[in-house]
Design a protein that fits this description.
- This protein is mainly beta.
- It has a single domain, classed as Elongation Factor Tu (Ef-tu), domain 3, CATH 2.40.30.
- The protein is built from one helix and nine strands; from the N terminus they run E-E-E-E-E-E-H-E-E-E.
Length: 121
Amino acid sequence: MASLITVNDGTTGSISPALVLGYQTARESQNIVHDLIGGGIAVTLIAPRPRSGRLELFFLTEADGFGALTKHGLETTFTLSDTDRPSVGMTYVTDGSLDLALDDQGRSRWVLSVGYQEVQP
């Protein structure tokens, strides 16, 4: 069974990329480490930030690629779900650049690269 991938903004409907072509994520630590006079350290433990990184969505048509670019330009949150890779599912906002590129190999497919910051739904 093929993977079902959707990106929904909760308002204007969803888009369905053919693939999540790339997914890079990181979580930034927020712990604070203090050097103590006389040696040693004191640590303040703080939960890490939510995930952030880059997401690459693969589209079969030019119209779908440009539609996804337009949608990601909206001032809203997005929800990603992937039936084959549920661990990449999240609610996110765009963070940084949105890059749309023509696939080098076939010259007919499109890849949207999205900088994202995960947020709580």
